[in-house]
Design brief:
With 360 residues, the protein is mostly helical. The chain is built from 17 helices and six strands. The strands form two sheets. The protein has a three-stranded antiparallel beta sheet with strand order 1-3-2. It has a three-stranded antiparallel beta sheet with strand order 4-6-5. The longest helix is centred in the middle third of the chain and has 25 residues, at 172-196.
């Protein structure tokens, strides 16, 4: 019999402020619908049904409580944690996440770097496969993974590989606390940016360069370290294969600019720049490995990395998603507001840089 884990500290006064009564009502409504529909909730219909709360919905997305993908809304791990003591289904999933986390940590300590199958985990913790899969949908949002099979609900065979970062957290509630801190920091920075200066989304590129010039690279990398747990020095070591000093300088510069763009809400240029960074890194990595792709395109680089086993399956899928993001931002494809890229998507795309480089 597995003992239920007691976790998640009481919310601080500051955290209560982040989700007021209106935020919580909307979030609860969405959570109830999502937990009864694994495919997610129709985003357009949900927004239409809450026409007077569109700003609140956007805010919940920005704070990483909800996620919009393929016009479907799903809730995030932080949303479950918000209702841990108020909703039995949410509490059940969180308890399973806690059990799985503890076992993953043990498995990593016993065999660091090993990739294992879902059934091995289920057998050890004595939970049914369907419950483990459902919990993993949320647990993969924690910063503890090296790679995992992307479709956790439908793939017959699930592969999982924790990363060394799992050792940073002794308990699952420490993971939740970390996610809350990141959410709070992102929200605070967003408020600070908007309170100091209102920026037009159609600013010219030259104006954006002027804006970026006011932000010192050291300050940008301090914020990157806070959000993604990687320093400029650590990233420099990861791209050791880039020997040209000028190219290294350009890559660092473009990462700084992409971070600023994504956090200021300039989602489209942020995704374009992020895609260009990843494309060039893949190109240079293939040159370093003395592998010649079939063409000089982003897709060719992805296929070459996949064929030669240079990227794990999950990272390959993530890279392919970035290529799709770049295709989406062509003006000919932007036919309506539904085709535009959200700030949350831009920030997720940016984080892919560090996930992919970590796999080199």
């Amino acid at each position: 019999m597995i003992k239920k884990h007691i976790f998640l500290p009481k919310k601080s006064a500051h955290f209560k402020e982040m989700l007021n009564k209106n935020n919580r009502e909307i979030l609860r409504d969405l959570m109830v619908q999502v937990l009864t529909n694994a495919d997610g909730v129709d985003a357009l219909k949900f927004r239409a049904n809450h026409e007077n709360c569109l700003a609140i919905i956007d805010e919940l997305e920005e704070r990483n409580y909800i996620e919009r993908k393929d016009n479907k809304y799903n809730i995030k791990l932080l949303a479950l944690a918000e209702f841990k003591n108020e909703d039995q289904p949410a509490e059940s999933i969180l308890n399973n996440c806690s059990i799985i986390f503890s076992e993953l940590r043990k498995m990593y300590k016993q065999s660091p770097g090993v990739t294992f199958r879902l059934y091995q985990l289920s057998r050890t913790i004595k939970l049914p496969n369907d419950q483990v899969r459902k919990a993993l949908v949320y647990l993969i949002q924690a910063p503890i993974w090296s790679s995992y099979t992307s479709d956790l609900l439908n793939e017959p065979v699930i592969w999982l590989s924790p990363s060394e970062s799992i050792l940073k957290y002794n308990t699952f509630d420490e993971v939740i606390s970390q996610l809350r801190q990141w959410s709070s920091a992102t929200y605070t920075r967003s408020k600070n940016y908007s309170s100091t200066k209102k920026l037009d989304n159609k600013m010219k590129e030259s104006e954006l360069e002027i804006l970026a010039s006011y932000i010192k690279p050291s300050e940008v990398w301090a914020n990157i370290e806070k959000d993604y747990d990687i320093t400029k020095r650590m990233f420099g070591k990861k791209i050791h294969f880039v020997n040209d000093n000028y190219k290294r300088k350009i890559i660092f510069r473009d990462i700084e600019h992409a971070f600023v763009l994504a956090n200021l809400g300039f989602s489209k240029p942020a995704v374009i720049l992020t895609g260009s960074i990843i494309e060039e890194l893949l190109n240079l990595y293939l040159q370093y490995k003395k592998i010649k792709p079939k063409g000089d395109t982003f897709n060719s680089y992805i296929k070459a990395c996949e064929f030669h086993g240079l990227l794990k399956f999950a990272i390959h899928r993530l890279t392919d998603s970035i290529r799709s993001f770049r295709n989406l931002v062509h003006l000919s494809n932007e036919n309506s507001r539904n085709d535009t890229i959200s700030k949350a998507t831009a920030k997720a795309a940016f984080s892919s840089i560090f996930i992919i480089v970590n796999d080199f």
